[in-house]
Amino acid sequence: MAVIELTSSYRETFFNFAQKFEYKSISFITRMNHKEQLIIPPSKTAKIFCEVSDTIPGQILNAVMITSGGIVMPLFSDNSPSYQVVSKMVEKIIEYKKNFFCILGITKDTEYIKNILNYTSYSTINYSLLKKNTITQFYIEKTSLTVKKAKKRDTMILFPLEKAYLLEEVLMGSSEINYQAILMNLKKTCTNQNVYFGSFGKKVIAKVNTNGRGFKYNQIGGVYTKPEYRSQGISTYLMKILLNDIHSSEKKAVLYVKKENKPALALYKKLGFQIISDYSAHYIIS
Q1: Of 14, 56, 115, 126, which has the fewest CB atoms closer than 10 Å, so is most exposed?
Q2: Cβ contact 46:68 at 8 Å
Q3: Could you say which residues of the chain have pLDDT below 70?
């Protein structure tokens, strides 16, 4: 058993590993995807620690990323690493960053790390992770809804929808909301991701977007329709457009949604998504 920090000498073997399991943590892989090339993030932004095989030289078996912002993201294979391996990973994580913000990923993997870290979890949000394995194109029917692909200049008109989405689906009720950070992140999303929004006249009522890009999968997030316009097929319509965009690049789609959000789960299943795992975000205090 050996746990090493990922360096350029392991780039190719890590890429082989990542392609098999990236759907488990697109948030992890997005930070390594630069124009469809695998890059190792500089130490000032993140570090990655990997379990390497004792029998096959250079083979990556499991990995975990710790970002400078305090987000821990496991990317484990279907065969979870041993307690000794995870403990070693946690030691290296703490050497890099003593204060954490969140552990994000497949529930059983995040629980594994959280229990070894032995910190108090003050809030956990439980999601279902869904994956769509087909890349067939949807027929887009005519509608009175005006749909546009967002650009950076559209950030401000989408800001109210983004705030509402985060409050409903992502943020904890007791969180202090950093509106400036939300705005900056939305601006990056409109610049670097695929964002579609729908309007009736001048009233922007719904949006969908990707929020992560892997090598085989794109992650969808930010799906939001104003409450008074729900149950009219608007999110379904926008999702079909976004999925066609993703599929046109020969990529599949993955997303996670709160377990109790039954309407969203029904929508995604209707579009061909299947639940593959539990997914959790543990917000912690050290």
Answers
A1: 56
A2: yes
A3: 121, 172-176, 285-286
- The gap from C-alpha 76 to its chain's centroid, in whole angstroms, comes to 15
pTM over 0.90: yes
Q: Are residues 168 and 34 in the same domain?
A: no
Residues 69 and 92 in one domain: yes
Q: List the alpha helices (DSSP H) in the chain.
A: 11-21, 26-30, 83-96, 107-117, 155-169, 179-192, 234-248, 262-270
CATH code of 109's domain: 3.40.630
Pairing of β 217-225 and β 252-258: parallel
Distance CA 206, CA 222 (A): 10
Asked whether residue 208 is assigned to any structural domain, the reply reads yes
The residues near 57 (Cβ < 8 Å, ≥ 6 apart) are: none
Which residues span the domain enclosing 45?
2-118
Residue 106 and residue 213 in one domain = no
